Every structure is written in structure tokens, then in C-alpha cells.
Amino acid sequence: MKRRIYEDAGLPKDSFIALDDFDSLENLGNYLNTLRENDTEYLRLGHIHRRNF
């Protein structure tokens, strides 16, 4: 989804992955692989919204 849709819904900017943040599917895939290999970054995405909601 587009970043604007999530932000308009009131979600914190770092609590989701917006597809339009990436200029290619390859870059998105690379980022997802980075998250898969980096527990700290992965957990950060999942826990930011819990502090706000």
C-alpha cells in the first residue's frame, strides 16, 4: 500500500512497510531479507505501533 494511506489512517510512520518507499520489487525484497536477518529491526517495526495504540 501507499505510505499516505497508512499515515492518513493515523499509523506511526515507522510501524509499517509502504510499497511506494521502494523504487523496485528487488529493493523491497532486499529490505525484507534484511528484516528477516535482523531481529532488532524487525521487532522495532512490530512494536512501535504498540506504544501508540
From TrEMBL:
InterPro entries: Glyco_tran_10_C (IPR055270), GT10-like_C_sf (IPR038577). Belongs to the glycosyltransferase 10 family. Its main location: Golgi. GO terms for molecular function: glycosyltransferase activity. Residues 3-44 form the Fucosyltransferase C-terminal domain. This is Fucosyltransferase. It holds the Pfam family Glyco_transf_10. Signal peptide: none annotated. It is an enzyme of class 2 (transferase). Transmembrane segments: none annotated. It comes from Cylicostephanus goldi (Nematode worm). It is a single-pass type II membrane protein. It is found in: Golgi apparatus, Golgi stack membrane. One of its GO terms (cellular component) is Golgi cisterna membrane. Its EC number is 2.4.1.-. Keywords: Glycosyltransferase, Golgi apparatus, Membrane, Transferase, Transmembrane.
